[in-house]
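Table 4 source record.
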Amino acid sequence: MLRIGLTGGIGSGKSTVAQIFEVLGIPVYYADKEARRIMNADPELKKKIIKNFGEESYTYGELNRGYISSVVFNDNGKLDLLNSLVHPETIKDSESWMTKQTTPYAIHEAALIFEAGVAERLDYVIGVSAPFPLRLKRAMERNNVPREEVINRMNKQIEEEIKMKLCDFVIINDEHEMVIPQVLKLHDKLLQ
């Protein structure tokens, strides 16, 4: 079975592309969603997060995402610390999940495939690319956050142009090129 990464900057549409692959019967591991689950379910990780970020990190036993976001997106050191705690656990969980899949290939969807060191564990990486203004607009509307906050988050990721050069395949999601035919073509290629 092939292990495929799916990545793209905030607002690129990688979740939409992942959902198309799911419709084609390909299982997708959504790293952000699973990381949140692990941060709520793993008692050791919870202890480490509370130790490093304070009791406010959890409210009634659930991760206080608003608080954590306000801390890490304003302090690169804190973001690096959180990533150093969460990424290894998420990677371990993803590896376990991958071994249980029975399809010709499975997808690990994550914004930080290269930044988290996941790429070297994968056979191929697909990038989803969209122009900066469109990504900015999508992220602001989806998350209902101001422009500055989205730009701040974008600045924490590898630059789009560099990220796409690191990918084996690129899907253009610019609202001009049709996405589904690109996914179908790639799906056929991965099945061969």
